[in-house]
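Re: your question from the hallway

Yes, I did run it. Sequences:
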Amino acid sequence: MTSKDHFGGGSQLEELNGFTNPGLPEHKPRVTDRDPKAAKIAERQVAAWFILSMVGTIWFIVSYFLFTPGETMQSIRLHNTSVGLGAAVAMFSIGAGAVLWAKNLMSDHEGIDERHDIGGSEEDQAVALEILHQAKEESGIARRPLLRNTLIAALAIAPLPAVLVFRDLGPLPGDKMFNTLWGKGVRLIQDPGGIPSTESERPIRAQDVTIGSAYHVLPSGIGNEENAEHPLNEKAKAAVLLMRIDPKELKEEPDRKEWSHEGIVAYSKICTHVGCPVALYEHQTHHLLCPCHQSTFDVTEHCKVIFGPAKRPLPQLPISVDSDGYLVAQSDFPEPVGPTFWEINHP
Ligand code: FES
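Structure:
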């Protein structure tokens, strides 16, 4: 029974609208309808696509472990290209197999459906059910166990790459976010834009920091041998913004009055939302602005959040001056820098 049979062909529509239904062009049976051998070949081709999809998924998993990205761009490219290729083959092959199945093996009878009211009567619902049964028969899913099983297998393993991608979210940061290169007596130096060598370090004298100025600052010693393995990581964690404000404008908590020096204050540059560098300082309002999602921090009140999605203030670096008049840290940050995370209360 066809859809045309259910809805009485085009006659009702013609009566209502007064037009002549040109009908369908002559139906040409496909080679797979005429030749059982061709149908068998098509069936194998579809199964081959589903098997290729499985190969793509397995390739994704194997290359994920085989080509672990290292420190070089080349290794990262190799990893991304390889897993990307696996995912593309896995997804494309399922789609290609399904299209070939529909084009060559599912029933291709043609029919005309008239528009009808939305919401079916019981009779229509029974008809719909019958059509569903008919579709099941015509798709051959019950009669062709090879196709059904390979499709089910391909779909079943297709989500595995997602599991591996989620694995990349870990491991948990542990205590990595709780320690930076700052410590008692470490000098504040100007950020030259790269990794400063010991010779090129430019420490900051407190008397050179004028009211209204702001400096991008790093800890002295970041280019030393002991940090040579991951200098960029260390730099990213320890980056600081240094500003000088008229001390009368600072609203400091009693327990933090000793953390600044004559209006010079230092705060972590890593946004507490998701970690972008907070790089914009408005010296008239004393606001620090994160360009990523516009979180705004008030420097006069310990960088509390006054706008945007960040949930906690920027951590403050306690500073003082050494005997030569250079700015130094009193300690590491008393709290973790960077985005808020679930372990933040467990140093
Ligand atoms: S990372 Fe700064 S506001 Fe989102």
